[in-house]
Amino acid sequence: MRRILPQPAGETARVSTCPCGLPASYDACCGRYHRDGGAPTAEALMRSRYSAFVVGDAAYLHATWDPDTRPRRVTVDPGTRWTRLEVLDRTGGGLFESAGTVGFRAHHDGGVVAEDSRFRRVAGRWVYVGPA
Questions:
Q1: Per the database record, which ranges form the YchJ-like middle NTF2-like domain (predicted)?
Q2: Integer Cα distance of 43 and 126 in angstroms
Q3: pLDDT digits over 14-35, tens only?
């Protein structure tokens, strides 16, 4: 069971178990990427972006969006309750690659968001480009 702790003003929510679905604590998993922005693979970036939606970290979503495709402003709807992430497939996106895709389904209280997402490295860091 995931537990979201009360959120101090101006900070993202704290989560005890990582929302991305991997068997680790939030701090040891996606939380470390939220702190430094450096996910090692495209899949890790996609999982950490999902977790950013869960904890309300719009700044991380903006920072990890490809500068060529990102919107001027990124917001997170605090009324959406994200419940589960399914990673369906991936191509490329590994430690020694420069591009990749990740297919996923992100479940929330109002339905499901499904996407095959494109990722690339910019200045040595993975960024989200957009739908494939």
A1: 41-129
A2: 10
A3: 567 899 999 999 999 999 999 9
User: Nearest Cα to 39, choosing from 8, 15, 56, 18?
Assistant: 18
DSSP line for 9-36: TTSPPPBSB-TTSSSSBTTTTHHHHHHH
- Alpha-carbon gap, residue 85 to 71, rounded angstroms: 24
- Residue 2 falls inside a structural domain: no
User: Does 6 reside within a domain?
Assistant: no
**Quick check: is 5 in a domain?**
no
Of 57, 53, 58, the closest CA to residue 19 belongs to 53
| Residue 122 CB partners (closer than 8 Å, separation 6+) | 66, 67
Strand 99-108 to 111-122 pairing: antiparallel
The pTM (predicted TM-score) of the whole model is 0.87
Q: How many domains does the chain have?
A: 1
The residue ranges of the chain whose pLDDT is under 70 are: 1-15
Q: Is residue 89 part of a domain?
A: yes
| CATH assignment of the domain containing 60 | 3.10.450.50
Domain of 99 in residue numbering reads as 30-131
